[in-house]
Amino acid sequence: MTATIIDGKAFAAKVRGQVAEQVARLKADHGLIPGLAVVLVGADPASEVYVRSKGKMTVEVGMNSFEHKLAADTSEADLLALIDKLNNDPQVNGILVQLPLPDHLNEDLVINSIAPQKDVDGFHISNVGLLGTGQKSMVPCTPLGCLMMLRAHHGSLSGLDAVVIGRSNIVGKPMAQLLLGDSCTVTVAHSRTRDLPAVVRRADIVVAAVGRAQMVPGDWIKPGATVIDVGINRIEKDGGGTRLVGDVDYDSCAAVAGAITPVPGGVGPMTIACLLANTLTATCRDNNIPETTGLTA
Ligand SMILES: Nc1nc2c(c(=O)[nH]1)N[C@@H](CN(C=O)c1ccc(C(=O)N[C@@H](CCC(=O)O)C(=O)O)cc1)CN2
């Protein structure tokens, strides 16, 4: 079997197009322009690229972008004061603090200081609790992107066996909650899981989010299964230079799977598209305007 490639880049462009249409509608019907504030502390090169991309795409869909770049040695008090200002700014509907933060800053404290209704990353403890109990919440962007692609590929996910490899707060745990919400039978596997190959082999859906380059080989995959690769790892290329690979061994998995996301061009682009969708959702909820179906969980 040769897997269908799930083209995340094209899917993300479609989602951004839908967001742009809805932003135009908000402007025309309600005189509203959604605003997204992105806060970057320090100068991590990868984070700088992601933040630039977020700002550019925010403007492209017709929203206002507010970028706050702070020095690496910014104090926690100063960062919390900025978040408080953004929480109280009516022009700002969504707030995102780019991760990772420098070591001297308490990530949980910073995230939990964002007003939950403006937490477009869905990382605030209130949103985590709402998602975990099946209530309306802001949903973390990367798992939301994975869910959108899975729904588009499968239609209904009900009754499917799903294995999520990785138990991070940002991807693994919310992904498991979303799959449960769509009535999958969900296993969360991690570094202590016994006989991981056997666990993965029974899955109709495999979501790999461990952060270990090419860890999942094709002979762990059930023929016809859908493989969603969340990993973004840079490795040495034969003959010099580097290249990006996921957490699954693409060639051997694509030979067995029914469908697979590539790296790059799979889950990654959906993260920013879903951030824009979440900013739209936050703006609608804040103004009691019905949300666009398909752009939320
Ligand atoms: N506050 C947050 N911080 C971080 C998040 C997040 O969702 N919220 N996620 C990641 C980084 N990230 C967005 O912030 C992100 C990562 C990857 C991509 C992407 O499009 N990747 C491309 C490859 C890019 C490359 O060439 O390096 C792909 O997979 O095709 C977008 C956004 C950590 N921090």
From TrEMBL:
Keywords: Amino-acid biosynthesis, Histidine biosynthesis, Hydrolase, Methionine biosynthesis, Multifunctional enzyme, NADP, One-carbon metabolism, Oxidoreductase, Purine biosynthesis. It catalyses: (6R)-5,10-methylene-5,6,7,8-tetrahydrofolate + NADP(+) = (6R)-5,10-methenyltetrahydrofolate + NADPH; (6R)-5,10-methenyltetrahydrofolate + H2O = (6R)-10-formyltetrahydrofolate + H(+). GO terms for biological process: L-histidine biosynthetic process; methionine biosynthetic process; purine nucleotide biosynthetic process; tetrahydrofolate interconversion. NADP(+) binds at G166, R167, S168, I232. Pathway: One-carbon metabolism; tetrahydrofolate interconversion. The keyword Oxidoreductase applies. The keyword Hydrolase applies. Gene3D superfamilies: Leucine Dehydrogenase, chain A, domain 1, NAD(P)-binding Rossmann-like Domain. Pfam families: THF_DHG_CYH (PF00763), THF_DHG_CYH_C (PF02882). GO terms for cellular component: cytosol. Residues 6-121 form the Tetrahydrofolate dehydrogenase/cyclohydrolase catalytic domain. HAMAP family: THF_DHG_CYH. NCBIfam families: PRK10792.1, PRK14186.1, PRK14188.1. Homodimer. PANTHER family: C-1-TETRAHYDROFOLATE SYNTHASE, CYTOPLASMIC, C-1-TETRAHYDROFOLATE SYNTHASE, CYTOPLASMIC-RELATED. This is Bifunctional protein FolD. It comes from Sedimentitalea nanhaiensis. The gene is folD.
